[in-house]
Every structure is written in C-alpha cells, then in structure tokens.
Amino acid sequence: MSVVTGVRPKSPAERLLAGNAWLVFAFFYAPIVVLVVFSFNANENVGIWTEPSLRWYREVFRDEAVMGALRNSLIVAAISTTVATILGTMAALALERFRFRGQRVYDGLLYLPIIIPEVTMAVMLLLFFAQGFQWLDSAIGWSPTFGIGTISLSHIAFNISFVTVVVRARLGQLDPRLEEAAADLYATRWQAFRRVTLPLILPGVAGGALLALTLSLDDVVITNFVAGPGSTTLPVYVFGLVRRGVTPLINAVSVIMLAASMVLVAVSFGFQRGSHGRVPNSTTEDG
Amino acid sequence: MGMNTMRRSAALAAALMVLVAACGDDDAGGDPTAIDCVPGQVDGNLNFYNWSEYMDPDLITEFETQYGVDVIESYYESNEAMLSQIQAGVAYDLIVPSDYMVKIMIDEGLAFKLDKGALTNYANLAEEFRTQPYDPTGDYSVAYQYGTTGLGVNLELVGDAFVPSWALVFDPELTAGFAGGVSLLNDPRETMGAALEYLGYSLNDVTLEHLEEAAQVIKDARPGIATFDSDQYDENLANGEVAVAHGYSGNMIVAIGETENPDNFVYVLPEEGATLWIDNLVIPTISTAPCTAHTFIDFLLNAENGAQLTNWNYYGSPNAASTPFLDQEVVDFYAATLEADTEVITDTGDYEINFTDLFAEAKS
Fold first, then answer.
1. C-alpha distances out from residue A186 to A181, A198, B29, Å
2. Residue A98 in domain
3. ipTM above 0.90, yes or no
C-alpha cells in the first residue's frame, strides 16, 4: 500500500515491490500502446511503420460491413445488458434475502454458464434454438429465425450469472439492519427496496451491467454459433478478417472499442463516487 | 467447498449428457436433391454466408439492382462453426466452404446438386478447377477463389540465380548463406507437407516412415531456420529480417506490394510441388432460395464480374475468362500456379495426429 500512497520506498523489499508494480503495468499496457500507435500507421503491414495517417480510421467508417457489424453489436449489447442486469439483480436479491425450496440447487446451477467451456454452451444454445424453433413451428405454426434475437437471448443467458455474482458481492456487504430499520419506520417492502437497498447496491448493479456490456461486446464463440442471416457482430467479423492476415484495420477497430470501454469505466467510477456521496453515513464500507 | 464442487460437477455432467444426447439426434439436412432452375431465375432474397472482406460490396449492389432481390451478407470465421449452423438448420442460401469442408458437407447430404443448366457461364471456369478430390464430379461446388502456399524470396539476400525448390528452406548448406535465415509456417500440415514434397512424396502421404523422414528433413534444416511463424512471416520478409519465408499467397501479395521496392521480392511455388487451397460456392439443402443462389453463382462466373471480385480481394481467380480484365499484378503473381504441381490438403482423419506429433518433435 505504501507504494500506492506515494511514500518513497526505502527497504529493498519495498523497492522490489515497486519495481514489480511497474513491471506489471508495463506488461499490461505496452501491448495496448503498440496497438494504438500502429493504428495510425499508413502501411498495409501491421508491423512496418511508414508514416502517421488516419487511413485505417477512414476505412473503418467507410466500410459498410464493419459499420453494419458494429450496429448489430451495439443492439445486442444494449438488449442483453438491460435484461441481464434486471434478471441478475433479481436473482441476487432472491438468493441473499429469501429462503426458498431448491435454493441451493438454483445457486449452484446459476454458476454453470461461468464454469462450462464457452464452446459447449454455444453448441447447446444452437441445438436448443434449432429444436425449439422446430417444436414451435409444429405446435403453433410460428417459426422464428436465427438472428439478433437468438444472439441477444444467448448473451442474456450467460450474462445473468455474471451480474448475479457482482451484485451478490455488494449485497453481502450490506448491513441487513438498514432494511430492518426501514421496515420499523413503516416502509413497505417495495419502498425499502427502492429507497434503501437499491441506492446502496447501485454501484454493484452498475458494475455488473458494465461487465455484462463488455462480455456481450467481446463474445465471439457463442455469437458465431447462434447468429443468423444479417446479424454478424463486430468481434466475429474482426476474427474473420484475421484469416487474411492482421491489418491495421483491426488495430483501428480495437482502438475505437478500447476508447469506448475506457469511457464506460470512467462513467462507472463517476457513478460509484456519486452514489457514495448520496449516502454519506452508509456503513457498507465497514464490512 | 467439497459439496459445492461436487454439485457443480454433477450439474456439468448433466449438461454434457443433454448435449451428447442432442448431438446424436441428427435430424438436420435431408437428402441432397437435384434442383431445377432457369437461367436468371430468382426465388427470393439471398442469404449469403461468407468470410469477412471476401466479396466486393459493389458486386452485391449490382446484383441487387439487376435482379430486383436483396442480398443479405453475413460473415463467419471458421468452417466448423458454419457447418454446425447449417446442420442446425439456419437458413442460408449460399455459403463459401473451404475444400475439405465441401467434402464433409457432400458426405453429410448438406449440399444441393447444382443445376448446371442454370449456370450459363460455367464454361468460364478453368478446367483444372471444375473437379477436385473433395468434389470429384464437380456437381456440388463451384470454385470461388484460390490461393497457394509457397516461398517469398528476398532477391537482395538470396540473389537472382536460385532454383525455385524447397531446398531454399530445407537445405542447411544453402540456407547457411542467407542473412537472417528462413522462416517456416508453424503449421504441421503445411510444413510437414512441404518436407514431404521436398522428398518427392505427396503432401497427403500418411506412411509413417515417410512422415519420419520428413520430420528428419525439418530437424536437419534447423540451423538455417530463424523461426516457425504463421503470423508475421510476411512482415519479416518485407522488413528484410528473413531471406526466404514460407507462407500463404494472399498475405505475400499484400506484403510485397506494400514494400518500397516490390521488385526486390518474388513469390515462387517450389518445383517439387506446393499446397493449393480453394474456397467454393455451395448451396446448402436448407436454402429457401436455391434458384437465386444459382443466378448469383452464374453472375460471379461472368468474366467481368469474376475479374472485379479478384481485383477487389486479390486472391487467385478460377475464372479463366476473367484473365483479360484482371490487374496485371494479380495475373503475374498467380501465373505460376496453373503450371505448378499443386495439391489440395485433404483430411487424413486418424493420421492427423502423426503430422502434429512429428512436427512438434522436429521443431523443438
């Protein structure tokens, strides 16, 4: 901690720790710096520097296929994040605040999407949709097709688990006496949730939502299996590009996505600080 | 904790059992049926499933205005994921599988038998691309684009007087004279295949003694090999870091074209033989607009449209009639292919592991 607080390290052990910290940072950020720098390269070869240029950014915005894929990604991310955040938060509340039959099984099964290999989940979802659509067709004559809908449902399916984990961590720190106090003051269950619980767990909910958003924007394997005509997302498209070698177009796309993620993280930090401000006497940090 | 782990394992096992049961229930596809289409016929919008950056968007627009249908292009990044989608019944009308995948799709009954009567421009397809080992009768697929695996040579470091042979990477006495050495693909089938060709065998040879000989060739060549690399070889060649690079034509043509002096480099196919890959247009039996798909294939077989496609993606064109309309750069680059002794990599099934193991041993 002394390294972080700016106290000059004195002992050799502390120096070593400081060195290690910088090494870790270099390890994390050096590849990103290279990626960003070479996205401004005029050359077609990703590793040969010729001159600075915005050529690849122009190409990204001019390329209809890339823009279409970006639009699909954003639609899927918006839908899946919203739904998964709501359902995930509800699941976390149910598990932390209530006792019901089959709770332990429910608890264990909730983590399934996190622990099973992604490709297994992808194949399962593909088969599930294929069989389900066939059944729907024969039962009520309605045959839905693969596309944005199936991708969104799949992303919701794995995102619920992640949102639940994050929100539960926050709920676990929350003093249950705060809710009891609200009840003592004649708050209904809903009022207690709306006025006390939700504001306190909001940083957790926001964190879960951001995690869900990032996972949805990143996903290749599952999306590739459950996509339908006209619903290719950006990561799948970019992955396909690699077949003809890595071009700086990929760098430019990555930098744009990186910038977007950094904005989201900044927003989330702002959010957490803001909500701390609103509940100054919160005891949540005492754990 | 122990209980937790157990519960999770049980859940996982249950999930896997469902998966296995579902996989065994193979009700996708149906018999590949012959289809009857009229030239220029359209029977609905076209769902085209292709690799990224492989089709000129202007060609799509032109087809749409000419025939009054919409073309919805989607993209995939692996043959295998595409296959499972087709098996599950996702309704695409036209797909672009690679050579080995065409064979799998024919065997599984997932591909339509094409109505050649509806393909008025079929004669434009070069003779050598009409039938291939993966589609011996040429009834199910039409070649889309192709590429080769060969050697990129830096003429400044190697000199003009060289023989286009695998010796350029495998003869340690020769490679010892190259500044920077040579780079080989980090791919068992490609590099073991090259060594097999160097020895005079087929690159699909599965005889264990021959594979061991090939591994020995790679082992003996190691002093001159700078790196086994499949990602950066084109740049290393363009940078002058290696004298000879083993790699794919599609990357080589781009890398060499972007250098300050492209005349310093040449891409050759070794005289002993080299790898050829072909991507193909196939109409899956799940298609709901097979006649539009036929019309689209015919549209691409048109000489000028075929040339426009190749001038856009810079791969080799199997469309012989398109040659007069091609960029000279592409013509020159792929000129050697048709004369060279090339072979498509086939799936050797159980023998694949021998390639992988012996290659890993040879390069370590």
1. 9, 18, 63
2. yes
3. no
